[in-house]
Design a protein that fits this description.
The complex is a heterodimer of chains A (147) and B (341). Chain A is built from 4 helices and no strands. Chain A is mainly alpha-helical. The radius of gyration of chain A is 30 Å and the shape is rod-shaped. Chain B is built from no helices and 28 strands. Chain B starts with a strand and ends with a strand. Classes of the chains: A mainly alpha (147), B mainly beta (341). Chain B: Essential component of the cytosolic iron-sulfur (Fe/S) protein assembly machinery. Required for the maturation of extramitochondrial Fe/S proteins.
């Protein structure tokens, strides 16, 4: 090797020592990033599965109730009060408009909230309490102070 | 000014939460009547003897609610009594020949019902609960009640609901520190929150326990865990007259008069504000006609220390020519008072 070549080789030698910390950092970062990406994706999949199930369950529940109620109204229009019939109709429309395949849609919470309230009104009108295991409640039972 | 104790009524076997004077009594020879409700799960009806002027318990409404009865309210006609309970139901009672019968049960709230109120015409009923919602019910023929709307808006336990004295506008107050105003926006069952009075509006900084309107309905007073009374006002000349809804705004705050939570407040027809607090005292406030610019618009008229042996939960002025004050306490008693100058 000539002098310049040797100097360059020496530079490279020292370069890799000086940049050792940077190199290790980058290596670690890359490794962490790809692990994180995979773990995050898996966790998000689990969350999506859970939320998707819950939304589907609640929407399906209302769908089932509305179907039965609508059938009952067809058989006997007087079995429900005019107000209850109007609200059942409104629920039908809300269920129809729910963007099932677009969970990021800004309206999802609003539509679900509206469905919940209307469902309460109809149940009250029928003097029944309908729910399923896991039906969303407005407050936690145990810890609230009662005055 | 002196607050004279007319009578101390015992009977309830647990704290007395609230009471309500029957608005159809106290005139034309009809003896004054009020209902009280308690942690003992019962409601008691008290009637004044016209000759002695003393009260006696005429009826005990029991074996219906399975938990504390938190609030009670007579319909404007005085014929029906609504009772709100921690058992999540609201019962409607009718006086049938001296006996009170439960003629209807309003179900739907998820948990404890805290308050019940009738509108001025007696055509609507409102209830509120720890489930954070306010329900509006329509009074139908045959003592039937149908839920018109379930209103979600408060983020915490709703403590009280009260209708405006002349308009079908509903007010609610909550553990979330806010007062909310609700009205039917469209022509049918479209109840919405039309105003929120919170900290940005000079509102309370802790739980708002109660509210009360003055006789003309253009002012309202609210009381809170933040140890203040706040007076609010509106220019509303009436929605019926086509004036539309005029927003409420803060008029003044009464600070420094209470050092414990104020649980109840009631504005008399004569303009005297009575407050009930956790320090066992009852206080009275009136308009301060000589108030300085920027100073408080109301002054303390009288403080009755040790009005009860424990927290005073509720105070209310009576109907009738000579207004009396009834107070309910954690000590299990009710007292009837007269304010004398």
């Amino acid at each position: 090797m000539d002098v310049l070549g040797f100097a360059k080789a020496m530079d490279d030698l020292f370069d890799s020592s000086l940049n050792l910390e940077d190199a290790h950092y980058k290596e670690g970062y890359d490794e962490g990033y790809s692990h994180g990406l995979a773990a995050g994706r898996e966790e998000a999949r689990q969350v999506g599965l859970k939320v998707g199930f819950e939304v589907g369950e609640e929407l399906g529940f209302y769908r089932g109730c509305v179907d039965i109620w609508s059938s009952a109204i067809q058989l006997d229009p007087t079995c429900f009060s005019p107000r209850a019939k109007t609200i059942i109709g409104q629920m039908e429309e809300l269920i129809h408009n729910y963007p099932l395949m677009d969970p990021e849609n800004v309206q999802v919470q609003e539509i679900m909230d509206s469905l919940r309230l209307k469902f309460k009104v109809v149940c009250s009108s029928l003097h029944i309490k309908l729910e399923y295991n896991g039906y969303p409640k407005s407050s936690k039972e145990a810890n609230d102070i009662q005055f | 000014m002196e607050l004279k104790e007319i009578q101390r009524l015992e009977g309830h076997t647990d704290r007395v939460w609230s009471l309500d004077w029957n608005p159809a009594t106290g005139h034309a020879g009809i003896p004054l009547v009020f209902a009280s409700c308690s942690g003992d799960k019962t409601v008691r009806i008290w009637e004044q003897n016209l000759s002695s002027g003393l009260w006696a318990c005429k009826a005990v409404l029991e074996e219906t609610h399975t938990r504390t009865v938190r609030s009670c309210a007579w319909s404007p006609s005085g014929k029906l009594l609504a009772t709100a309970s921690f058992d999540a139901t609201t019962a409607i009672w009718e006086n049938v020949g001296g006996d009170f019968e439960c003629v209807s049960t309003l179900e739907g709230h998820e948990n404890e019902v805290k308050s019940v109120a009738w509108n001025a015409a007696g055509t609507l009923l409102a209830t509120c609960s720890r489930d954070k919602s306010v329900w509006i019910w329509e009074v139908l023929p045959g003592n039937e009640f149908e839920c018109v709307s379930v209103l979600q808006g408060h983020s915490q336990d709703v403590k009280m609901v009260k209708w405006h004295p002349t308009e079908d506008i509903l007010f609610s107050c909550s553990y979330d520190n806010n007062l909310k105003v609700w009205a039917d926006e469209g022509d049918s069952d479209d109840w919405q929150c039309i105003q929120t009075l919170g900290e940005p509006n000079n509102g309370h900084t802790s739980t708002v326990w109660a509210l009360s309107f003055n006789a003309s309905g253009d002012k309202m007073v609210s009381c809170s865990d933040d140890l203040t009374l706040k007076v609010w006002e509106t220019e509303n000349t009436g929605m019926q007259s086509g004036g539309g809804f005029a927003p409420w705004r803060h008029r003044c705050t009464l600070t420094g008069y209470h050092d414990r939570t104020i649980f109840s407040v009631h504005w008399s027809r004569e303009g005297i504000i009575a407050s009930a607090a956790a320090d066992d005292a009852i206080r009275f406030f009136v308009d301060d006609n000589e108030s300085q610019v920027g100073g408080p618009l109301y002054k303390l008229l009288l403080k009755k220390e040790k009005g009860h042996d424990m927290d005073v939960n509720f105070v209310q002025w009576s109907p009738g020519e000579k207004p009396l004050l009834a107070s309910a306490s954690d000590d299990g008693t009710i007292k009837v008072w007269e304010l004398i100058s």
